[in-house]
Design goal:
This protein is an alpha+beta fold. It folds into six domains: about 5-105, 3-Layer(aba) Sandwich (Rossmann fold), CATH 3.40.50.20; about 105-130 and about 205-330, ATP-grasp fold, B domain (D-amino Acid Aminotransferase, Chain A, domain 1, 2-Layer Sandwich); about 135-200, Dna Ligase, domain 1 (2-Layer Sandwich); about 335-450, ATP-grasp fold, B domain (D-amino Acid Aminotransferase, Chain A, domain 1, 2-Layer Sandwich); about 455-555, Glycoprotein, Type 4 Pilin, CATH 3.30.700; about 560-635, OB fold (Dihydrolipoamide Acetyltransferase, E2P) (Beta Barrel), CATH 2.40.50.100. It has 20 helices and 39 strands. An eight-stranded antiparallel β-sheet has the order 14-13-10-11-12-15-22-20. Helix 4 runs antiparallel to helix 5 and helix 12 (about 395-410) packs antiparallel against helix 13 (about 420-425). Residues about 470-485 and about 560-565 have low confidence and may be disordered. One of its GO terms (molecular function) is ligase activity. It comes from Micavibrio aeruginosavorus. Keywords: ATP-binding, Biotin, Ligase, Nucleotide-binding, Transit peptide. This is Acetyl/propionyl/methylcrotonyl-CoA carboxylase subunit alpha.
């Protein structure tokens, strides 16, 4: 067995590989870009080597630099994780040439499965069912149109080098084929430098079912059952489960045996996944593609089999036999995985950046992550923060476990898809196992209702109680100030939620607060707030209640300088865009004088001087995006007369 390996990746998969390596007594080497200098995978490793700037093409895709790092540190093998170089045959071959073991399949196997048309030809010869279609060399438009007409609509046009949903078009009517073909070819050329396509029959109400396979250098091959990854958004997986719901045992066995045929046809070694498209009604299935690496969703397979797939990978890469034979593998229970992303589902799933200010997950939930509190989520890489994985004795039990996990998870500092995921597990069709690749688009109104991410009166009451303490770490119920001593007086607190200014009136009535917003009114006391998960800092409050996630910003327009320490250093109250700068460096300004206009959360605010003085620093300009807390203006205060 190896004594030291290098992980040619970042994020949660790098951390995941390190956990198994550490348990096996294997030392680990991390690689990192400038953006990841302080990342968790770097902190976890025994050694770490810088490989370049933040851009992936200059760091994590630099196979030559990574191999040099392995040589320099004495690593005997490289684990590629997933993404980046994991399915790059040239990198696998370069490792081989350098005398370093590539923890994955051979370059030949990667090459064979790299192009969809070539892969399907191999599968067809091996006796694996494939979708009816055309995969030939003739790429003439008129010829492809005739082939599509022959197959019958709807059809899918797919780039042979495609992946991740790129280079793919569904065509429902022959009159739209030529336009869709041209669009598909343009995207394929831009994304993969290869505009060749194949045409295949579109399966109505398709399910995405994949089989985990393993092969070793001794000719052994097994399947570790299947996963259902049908819940997708823009061809990207959102929820995965194992085993696939509602499959007859005969179909399950046929799937596994077909996958093993593929492994043996390729003389495949190490971990792989055979992806099938399945008719949700008839359970007929067809080979779609093979991923020649460990998958993001591998934890659900681990949860139902009790096996550590990274451990298996390391054994096989070291030349050992598979640890179990097929008849020794069995399914035990049901498992789900969800991917927590920094993205805004209510705004077309726009990726988010920021700092994670709070992150807590229930102890009985498996969490695969590279993010801890105070870690940044940057613009440079995929915005996945963590994977939550649960297991139950039955699918119903596992659903209940995931509902509880999402209710109790606290993840704050930036907008995430946590509430969206929770809504999936409330859906009646999902609970009943009625899943296919169109599920999310079909249930969009149910998963993203008008109330999504917006506060109700109870949320506003909780936030108001916190703000009245003057210190979010203080106890609002034990503070006795003049306002409360004066009896039933009312204060107004302004919040911003999803770009909307919300004015909340609060009246103190002894040990309770009466809170009203518009025509709605409620009373809140200590018991109500004690049961709520929340994260709060000086200006932002994130409330986690009944699976919902509500973010509120305490809005205090006016003397920003006073809110930033009273020293004339005026900082951005929230992330936003500078619309206009109203002063220049060196100008004399009065207290409360407008300095600049900022747009944040769909509203404009005027930032004013917190004191009189001279503009000493002005690091921003019109049109500039700024992060929360960024310096906007520094004023050298005038001496008091």
């Amino acid at each position: 067995m190896f004594t030291k390996i290098l992980i040619a990746n970042r994020g949660e998969i790098a951390c995941r590989v390190m956990l198994t390596a550490r348990a096996m007594g294997i030392k680990t080497v991390a690689v990192y870009s400038d953006a990841d200098k302080g990342a968790r995978h770097v902190r976890m490793a025994d050694e770490a080597v810088r490989i370049g700037p933040a851009a992936s093409r200059d760091s994590y895709l630099r196979g030559d630099v990574i191999i040099e790092a392995a040589k320099k540190t004495g690593a005997q093998a490289i684990h590629p994780g997933y993404g980046f170089l994991s399915e790059n045959e040239d990198f696998a071959a370069a490792c081989e040439s350098a005398g370093i073991v590539f923890i994955g399949p051979s370059p030949a196997a990667i090459n064979a499965m790299g192009l969809k048309d070539k892969a399907k030809e191999i599968m067809k010869k091996a006796g694996v069912p494939i979708v009816p279609g055309y995969m030939g060399d003739n790429q003439e438009t008129d010829f492809l149109k005739k082939e599509a007409d022959k197959i019958g609509y709807p059809v899918l046009i797919k780039a042979v080098a495609g992946g991740g949903g790129k280079g793919m078009r569904r065509v429902d009517d022959g009159k739209d084929f030529i336009e869709a073909l041209a669009s598909c070819k343009r995207e394929a050329l831009a994304s993969f430098s290869n505009d060749r396509v194949l045409i295949e029959k579109y399966v109505n109400k398709p399910r995405h079912v994949e089989v985990q396979v393993f092969g070793d250098t001794h000719g052994n091959a097994v399947y570790l059952f299947e996963r259902d990854c049908s819940l997708q958004r823009r061809h990207q997986k959102v929820v995965e489960e194992a085993p696939a719901p509602g499959l007859p045992s005969k179909v399950r066995k046929s799937l596994g045996e077909a996958a093993v045929k593929a492994v043996k046809a390729l003389k495949y070694t190490n971990a792989g996944t055979i992806e099938f498209i399945m008719d949700a009604v008839t359970h007929e299935f067809y080979f779609m593609e093979m991923n020649t690496r460990l998958q993001v969703e591998h934890p659900v397979t681990e949860m139902i089999t009790g096996q550590d797939l990274v451990y298996w990978q390391l054994l096989v890469a070291a030349g050992e036999e598979l640890p179990l034979e097929q008849d020794e593998l069995e399914i035990d229970g049901h498992a789900f995985e969800v991917r927590l992303y920094a993205e805004d589902p209510a705004n077309n799933f726009l990726p988010q950046i920021g700092t994670v200010t709070g992150f807590r997950v229930p102890e009985d939930v498996r969490v695969d992550t590279a993010v801890e509190e105070d870690d940044p989520v940057t613009i440079h890489y995929d915005p996945m923060i963590a994977k939550l994985i649960v297991r139950g004795e039955t699918r119903e039990d596992a659903i209940a476990e995931m509902q509880s996990a999402l209710e109790e998870t606290v993840l704050s500092g930036l907008i995430t898809n946590q509430e969206f995921l929770y809504n999936i597990f409330l859906s009646e069709d999902f609970v009943n196992g009625d899943v296919d690749t169109g599920f999310i688009s079909r249930h969009e109104k149910e998963l993203l209702p008008d109330s999504y991410g917006r506060p109700d009166i109870q949320d506003l009451a909780i936030a108001a109680a916190l703000c009245l303490s003057g210190d979010h770490n203080a106890d609002p119920w034990s503070i006795t100030d003049n306002w409360r001593l004066n009896g039933a007086l009312t204060r107004t607190i302004d919040f911003v939620s999803r770009g909307e200014l919300i004015k909340v009136a609060v009246t103190c009535r002894g040990d309770e607060f009466e809170v009203s917003y518009g025509a709605e009114k409620t009373v809140i006391n200590r018991a109500a707030t004690d049961r709520i998960n929340l994260v709060a800092d000086e200006r932002d409050i994130t409330i986690f209640r009944d699976g919902r996630v509500v973010r509120l910003h305490l809005y205090k327009p006016g003397a920003a300088g006073e809110e930033s320490g009273g020293e004339g250093r005026i900082t951005a109250p929230m992330p936003g865009k500078i619309v206009s700068v109203l002063v220049q460096k060196g100008w004399s300004v009065d207290k409360n004088q407008p300095l600049l206009i900022m747009e944040a959360m769909k509203m404009e605010m005027t930032i004013r001087a917190g004191c009189a003085g001279i503009v000493d620093e002005l690091p921003v300009s019109a049109g500039q995006q700024v992060v929360d807390g960024a310096l906007l203006v520094a004023i050298a205060q005038k001496e008091a007369a």
